[in-house]
Amino acid sequence: MRKKSKQQFIKFMWAIAALFAFVLFFTFAIYSPVAKSVNFVINPGDSVNVVARRVAGEKIVLNDSVFKIAIRLNGGRVQAGEYEIPRGASALRIAKIFSHGKIATVDILIPEGLTLRQVRDLLANSKYLSGDVECDSGQRWGAVCQISDGDIFPDTYRVARGTSRMAVLDLAYKKMQDIKKKFFVAGNVPPAPLRNWNDVLILASIVQRETPKKSEMRIVASVYLNRLRRGMRLQADPTVIYALTDGYGDMQGAPLLRDHLKLDSPYNTYRNSGLPPAPIANVGMHAIRAVMNPANTNYLFFVADGRGGHKFSTDFEGHLKNRLDWREIKRQKNPELQDVFK
């Protein structure tokens, strides 16, 4: 009888131990009061105790003791930064995120063809970044404080949430500097009459603004290079728009009119021969490659086709026909402006 009671007692104790182990496992590795994704910031210098009190106070973990034990199981430390705690994250998972510094990140897309002013607006409007988008006397950003159009590379930049806006600009600037360095190391020779990297960037910025179609870029580049070789003015609308908008590059929906082409500006390629003095936008690799390796064409003119692309022609007669077609499309869209379109 005593032997049977002893066996029952042992089984009971094993059951208690198993239940206790399950409760511990459930508390640390399964249970979560996090009903939806939440952001949490650990400031530099915050101790484990401080963080534990905060996550418990914000109902992110069951209590501070549970969290402190979870942290000990993950190395005993937390790293400063902004974190995104996912819905349903357990104390152990949160502790692992904090101790390994798995900070929240955000992808910042700088599209191809934006001007520097447009890029600054884009960064200023991002709620995931911090700080100013312009240099001041108290900042030490070096060369990035002197950038202009053509100096940054449009791309998607993955950064920690809370990264400064100037730091993103600096990343884009350094990437373009790296591309420029590789350009020279590779011994690239620009097509005549372009002379150097700056000329390539200037023409690439015009190509970039003229067409969103990558498949057209080499053809558009060939048109402008053909015109330059013949001493013809580029007559590129984006250069006029750049001048009209004081470097912003966006007419805000307003049409480009004939009178605008008379604007007195070094960027007005309807009045001035050759390239404008500097790039009019920030360019991607497709536009750069299009200028470096243009299509082999005799085209001298092109005009929008109303479908997002362009019609190309080798002579002015063909160009006039294409322009009439385009004007008819514009008249249908904006009949009240039919007498003022360029």
Q: Which secondary-structure class do the elements indicate?
A: mainly alpha
Strand content: 5-15%
Order of strands side by side in the largest beta sheet? Answer: 1-2
Shape: elongated
Kindly state the mean pLDDT as a whole number? 89
- Poorly predicted regions are none
Supply the number of structural domains.
3
Gap from first CA to last CA: 109 Å
Tally of extended strands? Answer: 6
The radius of gyration computed from the alpha-carbon positions, rounded to a whole number of angstroms, is 31 Å
By DSSP (H or I, 4+ residues per run), the number of helices equals 11
What's the helical proportion of residues? 40-55%
Give the topology string: H per helix, E per strand.
Answer: HEHHEHEHEHHHHHEEH
